[in-house]
Amino acid sequence: MSVSYTVRIRYEHRGRPKVTVMDPELETRPGQGLPHVYPGDELCLYYGDDFVGTQHFIADLIVPWISEWLYFYETWMTTGFWLGSEAPHPPGTAKL
Q1: Which InterPro entries does this chain map to (predicted)?
Q2: pLDDT tens-digit readout, 41-85
Q3: pTM surpassing 0.70?
Q4: Does any domain span residue 95?
Q5: Scanning 14, 26, 64, 67, which has its CA 20 to 30 A from the CA of 50?
């Protein structure tokens, strides 16, 4: 029942994977910013040390986390509540 999303994953060795939704454009709720994102609407998928590029594979962790983030996003669009766990931060200011 979900829409299909096109996402871009950019990764430099030993860096943080940077994930953005390319299509469709992510929407916001009236009077609210997009939750749980870094500046530039990069998805905030995990706590800082949950993914280590020298130990984990993007396909094993990042791709499922993207799917989960999109589920929480669609639920937030419907209910106004972000149901996923998250480190407290205002929209657009997640810590790198």
Answers
A1: E2-CBASS (IPR058588)
A2: 999 888 777 777 677 788 888 899 999 999 999 999 999 999 987
A3: yes
A4: no
A5: 26
